[in-house]
Amino acid sequence: MPPSGGGLGAAESWGRHQAGASASVPRTRSRWAAIIGVALLLSLLTGCSALRLGYSQGPTIAYWWLDSYLDFDSTQKQPVRDALGQWFAWHRKTELPQLAAILDRAAVDVMSDATTAQACRWSDEIRLRLDAAVEHALPGAAEVALLLRPEQLDALRKRQARANEEFREEYMQPRPEARAKADLERAVERSEMLYGRLDAAQRERFAQIIAASPFDPERWLAERQRRQRDLLQALQQIQSAGLGRAEALAALRGYWQRARRSPDEIYGRYAQQLNAYNCAAAAQLHNLTTPAQREHARARLRGWEADLRALASSTS
Fold it and tell me: What is the spatial distance between Cα 175 and Cα 278, in angstroms, rounded to a whole number?
């Protein structure tokens, strides 16, 4: 579910429940997707002025983020900046109008009750946009991957380990009541960004719905780590085997495909179960909102839509 998804964004209101590939894609091109696709979608929740400023600075922010993982040297900096600049130029022209159209439809749908099927359609639509973003980022990411040195992969491995520790701290509290409280706080905070203030009865019902989630942070962490190892192996193959551009691109595309659809069949069944829950929960949470809250959401969505259209029509 998109954070902005026509009142159906409640599925993202506890982002840890989303077990899509973007949530753990650790770096080069799929991290590009995270910073480009997911970061853009999440930024829709920050308000119009922040969205415009953040997107306009997107290439610089993305570069800093990637550099924090890989510590680019003087020969790598410009190719990375060029690839990011080209990607953002494409995204501004091609994808922002499509995202604005999604928000336009969302602003209509948000005024009515939602169904589980409708929630899943919104989720699928956003996933398609993310897939397009990643696919367009792959060639540039492959070019950069060909430039990486062994010590940079070591740095990536260490940064992944730190990220996993951060994940444990945020989602794997040892006491069940502490974990449940954190889950609810995230759900309420993110939902209120769209709908405005929730009342006590809504919060209580939110807690019940979220408590029924099949989300398993231990299982999700294991999948994150599998993907991280897979990414490192792909990058090491590119580096050690002296692959050309086409082979490097194929290696990264294979990694992305395995990130989107895990080769672990048990995890795959779990992800399907979680996705079904997310769709149903998104509809339930939306249907708890009042007409005034839906009007608040519509105004937010219209503002974001206008912002994306303004960004799409600008050149900087």
Answer: 24
Closest CA to 88 of 128, 40, 129: 40
CA distances from 238 to 26, 28, 81, 253 (A): 17, 12, 21, 12
Interval 166-203: pLDDT, tens: 999 999 999 999 999 998 898 898 899 999 999 999 99
Diameter of the chain measured on Cα atoms: 61
Q: Are 80 and 63 within 8 A, CB to CB?
A: yes
Q: Which two tokens stand for residue 165?
A: 């520790």
- Tens digit of each residue's pLDDT (9 = 90 or more) over 97-149: 999 999 999 999 999 999 999 999 988 998 999 999 999 999 999 999 999 99
Indicate the pTM of the whole model. 0.82
The owner of tokens 């998804």 is 5
Q: Are 279 and 120 in contact (CB under 8 A)?
A: yes
Look up residue 27 and give its amino acid: R
Q: Are 138 and 146 in contact (CB under 8 A)?
A: no
Taking the C-alpha atoms of residue 178 and residue 14, their distance in angstroms, rounded to an integer, is 15
How many other CB atoms sit within 10 Å of the CB of residue 238?
24
Give me the sign of the Cα torsion angle 46, 49, 51, 53. Answer: negative
